Amino acid sequence: MGISRLGFIAGLIWFMAMDWQVLCMAQSNVHHYNFVLQQAQFTRLCETKTMLTVNGSFPGPTIHARKGDTIYVNVHNEGEYGVTIHWHGVKQPRNPWSDGPENVTQCPIQPGKNFTYEVILSDEEGTLWWHAHSDWTRATVHGAIVISPARGTTYPFPTPYAEQTIIIASWFKGDVKAVIDEALATGGSPNISNSLTINGQPGDKYPCSQENTYRLKVNSGRTYLLRVINAVMNEEQFFGIAGHSLTVVGQDAAYIKPITTSYIMITPGQTMDILVTANQPPSYYYIASHSFADGALGPFDETTTTAIFQYNGNYSRPSSIPLPVLPIFNDTAAAENYTSRVRGLASSDHPVNVPQTVNRSLYITIALNFLPCTEATCTDSTRFAASMNNVSFEFQPIDILQAYYRSINGVFDADFPSEPLKYFNFTGNVTSINVATGRATKVTMLNYGEAVEIVFQGTNLLDAVNHPIHLHGFSFYLVGHGNGNFNNETDPKSYNLIDPPEINTVALPRSGWAAIRFVANNPGKGVVHPLSLGKALKLGHGHCSHREERQNKVTKYAPSSGVPAVLLLVLCNIASEANACLIKI
């Protein structure tokens, strides 16, 4: 992950490598990558283990493209179990077969097999990421997607001197699959990670880690673009660089009005583009990240990962390296102070097109629950689960997108409630509320072109925690958020319908609500799910039946006269790719 120099020399080398303009025009917008899922050995925290990776690296390789390009990724599975890959934040217009969620849009890629994903970029510009979408495999199988401006255009800010991807992730001493398999077998919570990492390294605050601490080497006076990705399994993060201001200019591959701050709060799945100027006395400065976990009753990773922001030049190494002053782990006010400042850029080149009125409204509660646990391995009579409107998702033995387009009956039901079936004080005292839920695979209909509003409502059932929620196939506008129960008469009056941020992952605040709006203009399928619910677990897939090649299906997505175009939208309350989905068609 060396620093990529930008500017004239790189552009000249690229131009000279092309065999005249015809070849340039024919090839510049298509990219090909080969991903090999394979076991590799890594030593961290004084211990060596074998884990699943892409191309033997952790994090995995970075994909580079430009706005509007198409990327083909041939994934070869040389691992021991089936895996899929998701292109987090890529809208994939009319191409849901390549979106990647296991048993929803495709069957897992079996060991010894391969699958070629077609990743179609549209209006995304900035930083996204890719990751496995099977159980907890994404803990070790993930990497960055860097989307530069289209040729002939540039950033809406001065071009930085160089750029670097910063991936914050989780490190488990044990086998990640064994961690989640044990939790599924017993019905309990999975073990927490043993450390956090920056670009694959825990940092020198951990044992046996000083020699390999990641270093970002910079030249004094230069401005750098940092592409920060939160790939942590469960925890939101406070992140900063000692002595240096951060200017946040993008989030989830869309530009925002610049925010100057000493720290960011970034939720699992989110990406942020940050400008940093090396304007301090040449020395070493810590880059650091630790968890934001306000109100969580269960355990979480309380460690701090570090890297070094290191100036080039001749100077004496400092006897001690300063740490950034980050908010403490439960500083809700600091998290809210940051997130409330995020606004869409709303310029002529990067407009905000938020729906001013809506055709369809959904009110969805997010909860932690119990399900019966009857297996011999269970440690209790119940297991942790999660729900949306008290429905906990049940995976089917065939991928759901295939079932819809092949008109296979009995795979899902069309009666998902658009609001809670039972109202109570969701964010108050819930000790008298039944925390049991039920499993089902339910759907509802979204018509093509509908303007949709979804209000996600947090609850205090079992544990009031933050829920990072991600929408596949779309970006959406975060038009409002707040504490307590959503009031449909007063809260919409405070919506931001002028310059809301366009994002693909939102942090639903603890005991609060978040309102999003989008237009259902991408026929096929989308998936909505929280990325981190450490206590809500998937109950297993069964065996997935393989469909025909996806290339034979693509034409079915385009709207045509006389045939209503529909969106298959799967809403899931998922513990890092697990449990409690709503499917919308």
Automatic annotation (TrEMBL):
GO terms for biological process: lignin catabolic process. One of its GO terms (molecular function) is copper ion binding. Residues 38-150, 164-314, 419-529 form the Plastocyanin-like domain. Keywords: Copper, Glycoprotein, Metal-binding, Oxidoreductase, Signal. Its cofactor is Cu cation. The keyword Magnesium does not apply. GO terms for cellular component: apoplast. The keyword rRNA-binding does not apply. CDD domains: CuRO_1_LCC_plant, CuRO_2_LCC_plant. It holds the Pfam family Cu-oxidase_3. Coiled coil: none annotated. InterPro entries: Cu-oxidase-like_N (IPR011707), Cu-oxidase_2nd (IPR001117), Cu-oxidase_C (IPR011706), Cu-oxidase_fam (IPR045087), CuRO_1_LCC (IPR034288), CuRO_2_LCC (IPR034285), Laccase (IPR017761). Residues 1-26 form the signal peptide. PANTHER family: LACCASE, MULTI-COPPER OXIDASE. This is Laccase.
